């Protein structure tokens, strides 16, 4: 866990810095300068670009994670593996783009029928609930360059991961990209730019972080850009391509499970409904931050452990990441709940913060908690020789999720999508947990996971019934601080995570030494 500790803590700091910026954008800026429909479209194109890039990638990021250890060489050419994988990604993107253009009428037909679906649902009475021309129709071709930049960054980010260079890419994606978004939103508030400019700058900023990541990779000097005509002979193209196709399908469907709610809500209920749902989804996504920080390092650790047949290392990482992610995730979950009134006081935009919508956060937040507590279950299977199982599981889960959304959205709108997301997440994590326990004798749970639940309940009670301070921002600081202190002391006393306790002890020793 030495590498995991060293980089995970730094990645966590960067991720939380990004989280703060994201929250400023979501709570303060988006609500001031974008209508709920514009915000819904913004989240829609981010969802589509992620799916587009995954389908176009041919599974190359997963290929890098699994096979790079086998092709790594001292001469930095790595048997031509990096050149071959980059070429595969470019071919995949070209094919996906041709299909994206060819199937434009079919894709847009689902979104052109939005008004019909809303009329059937009978939920919206406002004349502006549906635009005459959906945003996606106007901005359809913008998705091609955006998806290319997302694909390029994913490739370059994984290239950094396989050589254990993870912090800079985390900064680019979670801090710099969001800071650029903040600047453009402030310019919108000032009236200097419009929504069209915002979309263009967002696309360009994705290109910028890809370029900066490329420069960073070149600077490491871990890769040679010279290629001999005989180099690629050593690459087992058939095996790798088979793995890539399987993981492309499974990864695309897995992400689809997280994005299908937005896609179906936009198509069946309009960008406005999807905007409300996505706003609360983005509030809840903070719960997954610890998992995102850890996964940047642990994915490569697990792949290397499988290569060395070191199952004990996998079991150790599996358990430790699960308990750490659950511990931090629960604190973030209750932290948002206890500050519900403060959130509404800050936003003060009725179309975003109608109190009846807060249940969306509760259901979605539980879904995130289930997912991060599952730990590395899908990573472990994906990087093993049983990776095909994930493909089969995600296909079945996608059918299950789409079916639930189709049944629940017409009646319950956003809450229907939230319920479908929660149930699907529970299903996937139960299946992967059961398989790892049965097949590999691995499972991450212990009595300490139950202790975390009781500690979370105690922390929630402290925060909920704490005296309310009239100043909103002071109340957030004090209420959150008191809750975190009580939560942290209980977690430390119960020794929920030895790694966190060791980090706290080391920090306290440094502070005492500094004072002395």
UniProtKB/TrEMBL annotation:
Residue ranges of the TM segments: 12-30, 50-69, 81-103, 139-156, 176-193, 199-219, 240-257, 277-296, 317-338, 358-382, 389-409, 415-436, 448-467, 473-493
A Pfam family annotated for this UniProt entry: Polysacc_synt
Membrane topology: Multi-pass membrane protein
Compartment list: Cell membrane
Coiled-coil ranges from the UniProt annotation: none
UniProt KW keywords: Cell membrane, Membrane, Transmembrane, Transmembrane helix
UniProt organism field: Mucilaginibacter antarcticus
Protein name stated in the entry: Lipopolysaccharide biosynthesis protein
Main localization category: membrane
């Amino acid at each position: 866990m030495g590498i995991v500790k060293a980089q995970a803590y730094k990645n966590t700091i960067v991720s939380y810095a990004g989280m703060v910026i994201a929250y400023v954008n979501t709570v303060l800026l988006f609500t001031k300068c974008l209508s709920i429909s514009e915000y819904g479209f913004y989240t829609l194109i981010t969802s589509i670009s992620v799916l587009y890039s995954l389908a176009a990638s041919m599974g190359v990021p997963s290929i890098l994670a699994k096979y790079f250890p086998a092709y790594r060489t001292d001469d930095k050419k790595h048997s031509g593996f990096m050149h071959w994988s980059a070429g595969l990604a470019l071919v995949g993107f070209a094919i996906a783009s041709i299909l994206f253009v060819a199937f434009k009428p079919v894709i847009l037909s689902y979104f052109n029928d939005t008004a019909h679906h809303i009329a059937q649902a009978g939920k919206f009475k406002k004349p502006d609930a549906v635009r005459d021309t959906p945003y996606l129709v106007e901005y359809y071709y913008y998705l091609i360059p955006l998806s290319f930049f997302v694909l390029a960054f994913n490739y370059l980010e994984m290239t950094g991961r396989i050589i254990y260079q993870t912090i800079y890419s985390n900064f680019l994606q979670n801090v710099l990209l969001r800071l650029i978004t903040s600047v453009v939103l402030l310019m919108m508030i000032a009236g200097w730019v419009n929504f069209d400019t915002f979309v263009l700058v967002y696309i360009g900023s994705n290109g910028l972080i890809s370029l900066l990541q490329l420069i960073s990779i070149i600077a490491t000097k871990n890769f040679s850009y010279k290629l001999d005509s005989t180099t690629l002979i050593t690459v087992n193209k058939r095996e790798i391509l088979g793995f890539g196709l399987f993981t492309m399908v499974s990864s695309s469907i897995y992400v689809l499970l997280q994005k299908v709610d937005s896609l179906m809500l936009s198509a069946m209920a309009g960008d406005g409904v999807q905007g409300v749902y996505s706003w609360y989804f983005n509030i809840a996504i903070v719960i997954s931050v610890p998992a995102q920080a850890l996964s940047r390092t642990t994915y490569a650790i697990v792949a290397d452990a499988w290569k060395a047949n070191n199952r004990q290392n996998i079991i150790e990482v599996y358990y430790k990441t699960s308990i750490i992610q659950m511990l931090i995730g629960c604190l973030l979950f209750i932290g948002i709940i206890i500050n519900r009134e403060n959130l509404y006081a800050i936003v003060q935009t009725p179309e975003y913060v109608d109190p009846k919508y807060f249940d969306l956060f509760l259901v979605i937040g539980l879904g995130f908690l289930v997912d991060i507590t599952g730990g590395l279950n899908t990573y472990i299977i994906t990087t093993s020789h049983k990776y095909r199982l994930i493909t089969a599981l995600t296909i079945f889960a996608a059918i299950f999720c789409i079916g639930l959304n189709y049944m629940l959205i017409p009646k319950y709108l956003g809450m229907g999508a939230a319920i479908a997301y929660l149930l699907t997440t529970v299903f996937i994590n139960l299946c992967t947990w059961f398989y790892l326990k049965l097949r590999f004798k691995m499972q991450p749970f212990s009595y300490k996971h139950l202790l975390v639940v009781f500690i979370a309940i105690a922390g929630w009670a402290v925060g909920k019934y704490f005296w309310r301070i009239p100043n909103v921002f002071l109340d957030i600081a004090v209420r959150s601080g008191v809750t975190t202190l009580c939560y942290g002391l209980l977690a430390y006393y119960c020794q929920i995570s030895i790694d966190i306790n060791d980090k706290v002890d080391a920090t306290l020793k440094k502070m005492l030494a500094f004072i002395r």
